[in-house]
Every structure is written in C-alpha cells, then in structure tokens.
Amino acid sequence: MSRFFSKRYAELTPYTPGEQPQDMAYTKLNTNESPFPPSEKALAYAAEHTKPLNLYCDPTCHLLTAKLAEVYGVTEDMVLVTNGSDETLNFAFMAFCDEENPALFPDVTYGFYPVYAQLNHVPFEEIPLTEDFSIDLDEYKKRKGTVFLANPNAPTGKAIPMADIEALVAADPDRVVVVDEAYVDFGAESCVPLVKKYDNVLVIQTYSKSRSLAGARLGYAVACPALIADLNTIKFSTNPYNINSYSAAVGLGSLLDDETNKAHCKIIAENRVYTVAKLKELGFDVVDSSANFVFAKHKTVSGQEVYEKLKANGVLVRHFTKERIKDYNRITIGTKEQMDVLFETFRKIWG
Ligand code: PMP
Known about the structure:
By secondary structure, this protein is α/β, with parallel strands linked by helices. The chain is 38% helix and 15% strand. It contains eleven helices and 13 strands.
C-alpha cells in the first residue's frame, strides 16, 4: 500500500479471481467458463457490425438493450447492459444498500458480495446456509435489508424455485431482492417473470457462462423501469461507455443464434450427470447442482490436497479456504473429454 492510498480502502480485501495461469496448458475446470467457443454466427455478426473504434460506443447500448428487452418480453427501460454482471452487482450495492438497508446474503455464496459491500461501505450480514447448503429464505424474511441471492448458488450449485423467491419478494415490498442468475441457463428457473409483477426485484444475468463470452464482459439487469433508472444514475456517474463497441455487437449476434447457446447448455447438463456419477465412483460426495459446476468433497482426501495434486498434474479446479467448505472443490463441467482427463488424473494420483 502506498502512503497515498485512501484510508477509506485501507481495510479492503479485494476479490481473488480464479487462477488464469499462462505457464502451461491446463485442463481448466476452475472458473466456470464454457468449454465451447462462442457461436460462429455471433462472431461473424460482430466482425461486420462493430462500430468504428475511433468513435465512442453508444452509451445507451441501445441495439443490444432493445434486443434483450424483446427476448424477455419487457420494455427497453427495464434492461441495463453492463461490463460483466459483476458491474451490475456493484451498481446494485451502490444503489440499493446503505445504513438502513444492509446487504443480506448467505455465508457461502459468490465471494464478490462481501467485497462490494466493503468497497461501498455498506453494512452486511452473512446468513448461514443450512446443514445441507440450502438457503433458508425464512431467515431473510425475518430481517430488514437488501437481499442478494445467487440462484443457482455458487459455489454449491443448489437452486431455489421461483415460487419461493416470489414469496420473499412479496413478503416485504419495501426491500429490493437481487437475484443473480449467472448460472440459471444450466437448469434452474429464472425469476425474470417476477419483474413484470413486482417493483422490488432485480434479476441479473451474464453472457459469461451459457453464451461462451466470458472475455467479452457482458452482463445485464432486468427490473422495473425505476430500478433500472437508479442503476443508470450510478452507471452514468461512473462509466457511461461501459460496453465497448465489439462486445455490444457480439452480444447482439449471440442473441440472434441462441439455439447454439442452448444446445451447448444441454450438453453441459448431460455432462454434469456423467460427472456426478463418475465422481461418486471415485469416492466424492457431490452436492445436487443446477449449474455448470459441481461442488464435491472426497471421503478421505482433503479439499486442499485434491486441489494441489490435481494442479500439479495439469488439472485446475477451484478450492476455497473458508473453514466451512475447505474440504470441497468446485469443479466446472467441461466437455466429456475434459472430464475424462480429470477422472484419469485422479485415478493416476490416488489409484
Ligand atoms: N455471479 C456469480 C454467482 C458468479 O459466479 C460470477 C462469475 N464469477 C458472476 C456473477 C460474474 O460474472 P461476470 O462478471 O463474468 O458476468
């Protein structure tokens, strides 16, 4: 830390992104990226439609926003496109949390939530998952504050039905419920229909997983016009040109070929079934997942050892040091071939 660093951030522990090592070619099952390249049609569309780069991109990101609104059957003022869904999350912490409205989220969830809370100096409470890693929504109903739920949750992969989230949203119309649907396309129920009925729910999705565009950094929020207007106030006060011209074009192209994305999600869901069965054969307990990853704990080998030895043998999975989950690893579902490399490597090391 330099002597110039503001005291406001002196205590901040930044988020640690999953490893992206460049030293060798790993079988990369650690950051929930898609193993499939983006749709060819999306790339061709972007090559043709990217606005000249000597000009600023459209700060309203109109074409993509309008197309997303059409896809979800809402008006354009109910959608905001952001630089990854991380940016929407940060905007939501800035816009909807303060001393009177602390952030509420599970003790085991996306690790960026506590970082955004700290960055924005908002109080937060981490509400423990139940013994089997479920989210007990009654615990949230008892408390006042802005709720952040990853659905499916990360890193557990467990999903909550829309009806349960609706009951939470309806129980207190004076709080915002943010539903982070980064992994929804792999088998969970989206809460987008709720935004047409309630003005206190904000749904966040991303192109990073199910649309194979993690590198393009595209996410979006869908909510009632007033919530989106609030997020726009934050956006236009921080970075009006948050979506570069290429990403705006490739995002639109990707929507024009969503069959390809859906077909990839179907393969991942099939590979998840295959992976769960194989991991169980190898001695793992696996949490029920609706996402493009599974959360697994070996019956005898520690989580740290699984992570370290797999890495030394060219397979990367994600290990978390938090006490409650330190015996687990989060394993991204890749192609069947990638999963076979994982199983063979495991057998080679542990027999
Ligand atoms: N939410 C969850 C639950 C995630 O796991 C991630 C990916 N790390 C994100 C949001 C952010 O994804 P992105 O910014 O790439 O859209």
